[in-house]
């Protein structure tokens, strides 16, 4: 008997090996898919719902802005309960609005950060929408929500001086969050003072580093958006990855000699404050020239407000003196410049429990009650701060 009869032809041997490898690969793929399926079911049964959304797009002119045309349910921020993240064609909170208001309508454009956007509340519950609903009942007004989570005054100014240049209205309002808006000029600088002149910088920091790289890598993953919308397991893994990346980036920055923006040195805060007030100067000038008026809303940092009412609080990442000095500085600035001031601090309840009720319990943002209170205050003060001047 020949060797070929005993051992099989080379072609037969190769085919057998390929079939064996294919069977092993299929078994591995089946096992892996089954394991993922079991893990998905287990996380859905054992953990609270977790759904994410891809929030941002980058732009070298103003850093970041929310992606346009997004309509997703997410559990990010707030009490981690589902809420609708929906943006219009500009990347601002739905609904759509044009460059100019309708004839006879006085438009108030409200810019600011996540407090203005309304993180973790529905679109009609965010304070600009509350103010809009109230003002529409009293006359020909509209209030536009142009808030973006993560923005500071410099982002708003850079947007209005670039992509937002065609936007018109009767009044520009900036909602200033006392917890971190001053330090935003340090963390994500878009302008700096040179010889007393505010100069636009070419490369925003927020488009560089670990966080930006991580965001780009995740978006390059096939079916990223589909998994964000439907997979509990994927969202939990994504959140852990983001938290680790952000934590490591902050650690690396401090190791390299940078200040922790939540615990800045007084000299770092002072420099950032000077640049922030110069930014507000330019925002006010732009608002008066292009919109016909400018007003400032101040939003309190919860822990500072509670301590001001005598409530004992555990140590927080952001020291209270940052919020206190930020409040004092912007109030003095507004008075010195003749800028109408809408100070939410004036409407805070006298008791700590009442203050806590305005904010989310596990988040620093206003909840539904806080947004409603601020929206009502804005609606009350807007006619005096921004006289009706359709443009």
Characterization of the model:
Helix 10 runs parallel beside helix 12 (320-337). By secondary structure, this protein is an alpha/beta fold. The model is unreliable at 1-5 (pLDDT under 50). The protein folds into two domains: 3-46; 56-385, SGNH hydrolase (Rossmann fold). The protein is built from 14 helices and eleven strands. Strands 6-5-7-10-11 form a five-stranded parallel β-sheet, with helices on both faces. Helices cover 48% and strands 14% of the residues.
Short structural summary:
The chain folds into 2 domains: 3-46; 56-385, SGNH hydrolase (Rossmann fold, 3-Layer(aba) Sandwich). It is α/β, with parallel strands linked by helices and 391 residues long.
SSE diagram, text form:
Elements: H1 3-7, H2 10-46, E1 56-59, E2 63-66, E3 71-74, E4 83-86, E5 106-112, H3 114-117, H4 127-136, E6 141-147, H5 153-160, E7 171-177, H6 181-187, E8 191-194, E9 197-200, H7 209-220, H8 224-230, H9 232-255, H10 266-291, E10 294-299, H11 302-308, H12 320-337, E11 341-343, H13 352-356, H14 368-385
Parallel strand pairs: 5-6, 5-7, 7-10, 10-11
Antiparallel strand pairs: 1-2, 3-4, 8-9
């Amino acid at each position: 008997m020949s060797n070929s009869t005993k051992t099989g032809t080379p072609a037969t041997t190769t085919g057998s090996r390929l079939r064996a490898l294919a069977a092993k690969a299929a078994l591995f793929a089946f096992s892996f898919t089954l394991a993922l399926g079991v893990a998905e079911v287990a996380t859905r049964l054992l953990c609270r719902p977790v759904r994410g959304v891809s929030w941002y797009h980058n732009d070298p002119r103003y850093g970041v802005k929310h992606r346009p045309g997004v309509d997703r349910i997410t559990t990010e921020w707030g009490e981690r309960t589902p809420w609708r993240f929906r943006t219009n064609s500009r990347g601002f909170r739905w609904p759509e609005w044009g460059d100019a208001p309708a004839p006879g309508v006085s438009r108030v454009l409200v810019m600011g950060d996540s407090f203005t956007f309304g993180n973790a509340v529905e679109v009609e519950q965010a304070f600009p929408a509350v103010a809009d609903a109230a003002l529409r009942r009293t006359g020909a007004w509209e209030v536009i929500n142009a808030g973006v989570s993560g923005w500071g005054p410099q982002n708003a100014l850079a947007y209005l001086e670039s992509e937002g240049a065609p936007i018109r209205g009767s009044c520009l309002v900036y909602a200033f969050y006392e917890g971190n808006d001053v330090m935003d000029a340090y963390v994500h600088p878009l302008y700096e003072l040179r010889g007393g002149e505010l100069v636009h910088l070419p490369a925003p920091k927020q488009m560089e580093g670990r966080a930006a790289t991580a965001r780009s890598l995740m978006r390059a993953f096939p079916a990223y958006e589909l998994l964000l919308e439907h997979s509990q397991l994927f969202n939990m893994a994504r959140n852990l990855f983001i938290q680790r990346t952000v934590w490591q980036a902050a650690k690396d920055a401090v190791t390299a000699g940078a200040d922790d923006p939540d615990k800045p040195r007084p000299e770092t805060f002072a420099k950032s404050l000077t640049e922030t007030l110069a930014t507000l100067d330019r925002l006010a000038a732009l608002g008066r020239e292009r919109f016909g008026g400018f007003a400032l809303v101040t939003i309190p940092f919860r822990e500072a407000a509670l301590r001001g009412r005598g409530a004992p609080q555990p140590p927080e990442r952001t020291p209270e003196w940052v919020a206190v000095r930020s409040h004092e500085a912007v109030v003095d600035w507004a008075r010195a410049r003749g800028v109408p001031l809408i100070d939410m601090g004036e409407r805070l309840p006298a008791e700590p429990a009442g203050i806590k009720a305005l904010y989310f319990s596990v988040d620093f943002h206003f909840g539904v009650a806080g947004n409603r209170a601020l929206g009502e205050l804005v609606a009350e003060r807007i006619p005096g701060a921004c006289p009706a001047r359709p443009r």
